[in-house]
TrEMBL record:
Origin species: Chelydra serpentina
Gene Ontology BP, a term: bone development
Location (main, coarse): secreted
Protein name in UniProt: LRRNT domain-containing protein
Keywords recorded for this protein, A-Z: Disulfide bond, Extracellular matrix, Glycoprotein, Leucine-rich repeat, Repeat, Secreted, Signal
UniProt keyword annotation of Repeat present: yes
Length: 316
């Protein structure tokens, strides 16, 4: 009886083992990670509000091949690769038009790469330039000081309808074309000091500030009535030019006239005032400098009766 019971128990255990499901060994290699991205939330506790770097670290620790597939970009086509390699900063810069960095100079560089452009102001100071570079059409202020420019051509500022200030201090300018500045409709300030200019060209009537000090104008470098039509001219500086006269007539708007260190030897009584109109007063002209000239201001006292202040100069 005992033997029969053992045989029955053995058969029962054998049938149970045979009927149990087969468990295959799982190998967690990279080839087993073929998981759709939409199923990741079901397999792993992924928080979409985590920072990108932290999320990548957590996913990458569990599924390295999946993260590689997510963040690897498809290869560029031949056309896309060529477009990506094309520099965009100088696109459009050509001798015939203004690109992102302005028109090209004669050296083949865009002006705003050779110089410095801030808004509508162009700075070309101390760049060893021997000519005025072509300017963007929206330029309002141009500075090219301490260079080697020798001549201003009539086309240097052509079509610069927005230009308000030109500063060419400390160059080697000895010649200026007659039409170099005349056609600039908004030019207000012109600074040409410390050059070798012997003749001023015709200037636009819109000027409010002129500084041509330290040049070689002499007795014939300024045309007659050169400043007559400048109804808004406030400051006129012509120091150190070997002038032998005061350029007349001076506009009523003038506030400062600097003529020191020239060769002015005499002054007419109508230079500043009107002898026939004793009630005439010239209140704007408060700053007149004639020091450094061989002139005795005390010889013409009536020439200053209409002024708010006496000129600065020798009274002996």
């Amino acid at each position: 009886m005992k033997t029969f019971a053992n045989i029955f128990l053995g058969l029962f255990i054998f049938e149970a083992i045979v009927a149990a499901p087969t468990i295959d060994t799982l190998i967690y290699g990279s080839e087993t990670y073929d998981v759709a991205l939409e199923d990741l939330d079901n397999l792993y506790d992924y928080n979409e509000n985590l920072p990108v770097d932290q999320a990548e670290i957590e996913i990458g620790t569990v599924l390295p091949s999946v993260t590689r597939e997510i963040h690897s970009l498809p290869p560029l086509t031949e056309e896309a690769e060529e477009e990506a390699s094309t520099p965009k900063l100088i696109d459009g810069s050509s001798p015939h038009g203004s690109g992102l960095l302005g028109p090209q100079t004669h050296d083949g560089l865009p002006t705003c790469l050779l110089c410095t452009c801030l808004g509508t102001t162009v700075y070309c100071d101390d760049h060893e330039l021997d000519a005025v570079p072509p300017l963007p059409k929206k330029t309002t202020h141009f500075y090219s000081r301490y260079n080697r420019i020798k001549k201003i051509n009539k086309n240097d500022f052509a079509n610069q309808n927005n230009l308000k200030r030109i500063d060419l201090t400390s160059n080697f300018i000895s010649e200026i074309d007659e039409d170099a500045f005349r056609e600039l409709p908004q030019l207000q300030e012109l600074v040409l000091r410390d050059n070798k200019i012997q003749q001023l060209p015709e200037l636009p009537p819109t000027l409010t500030f002129i500084d041509v000090s330290d040049n070689r104008l002499g007795r014939k470098g300024i045309k007659e009535e050169a400043f007559k039509d400048m109804v808004d001219l406030h400051h006129l500086y012509i120091t150190d030019n070997n002038l032998d006269h005061i350029p007349l007539p001076l506009p009523e708007s003038l506030q400062a006239l600097h003529l020191q260190n020239n060769n002015i030897q005499e002054m007419h009584e109508d230079t500043f005032c009107k002898m026939k109109d004793v009630a005439y007063a010239r209140r704007a002209l408060e700053d007149i400098r004639l020091d450094g000239n061989p002139i005795n201001l005390s010889k013409t006292p009536s020439a200053y009766m209409c002024l708010p202040r006496l000129p600065i100069g020798s009274l002996i």
